[in-house]
## 1
Amino acid sequence: MKRSISPTEKTSRGRPRTDRVVQHLTMTHELSAAIDAWIAQQPEPRPSRPEAIRRLLDTAFAAQRTPESLDQKIARTKRTIANNPLVGEPSAAQGMATLRRGLAETKLRSLKARKPAKGDAADGD
């Protein structure tokens, strides 16, 4: 008799998902018990083991990410303004470019308002 197809090889009906990557991993009993203990400490509804692993990984990687500095935000916003010029024939795409540019200019003004002047003390005294 022919063997059945394993769950990871089965294809589902409909359009395939593109936002997820399936990962299989092997862990020690101690690590598994630690994850189960973390799950038990969570409020109801408690996450499933896969969701718990996702949350723990998110927390670990979030601690490693460096926040974007104010100067980086200003530079990114200026690039958005430069990439959405106010020229050309009126169209839906031009309307969206105008909207993005307007939003970016507003954000740039608010970011510049938060940035201390060059002569001011860094500690805000």
Note: Residues 93 and 99 are 10 Å apart (CA to CA).
## 2
Amino acid sequence: MRAKYYQPGEPDRELEEITELLGTIISRVGTGASADAGTLVGEWDDIVPERWRDRARPVGVRGKVLLVEVRSGTDATVLRHDTADLLRRISGRFGGGLVDDVRVRVVPQQAPRKDL
């Protein structure tokens, strides 16, 4: 298939077209990734409970496990006890089957480097 480039005067293409195309390509390649996983990461703040928004950032989905990173052990503990609510919201948005587990990883924020 040859690439078709946008020409002035052509109607705008909708963004959903590329999402559908990428989802099809990814599923054919068999990487285990999906367009929904990309949407989950991209729309994190709209999907997750409020207490997750400022404390955790999604890294991605591998298999059916969502990996999120937090800055402290305290945040990890709080959020680990709240994964059922997060999984319900994800299931409600994407249907069952995208994510069935959440892994929380602590990645401490690095302190600013002091010049000597």
Note: The chain has one domain: 15-106.
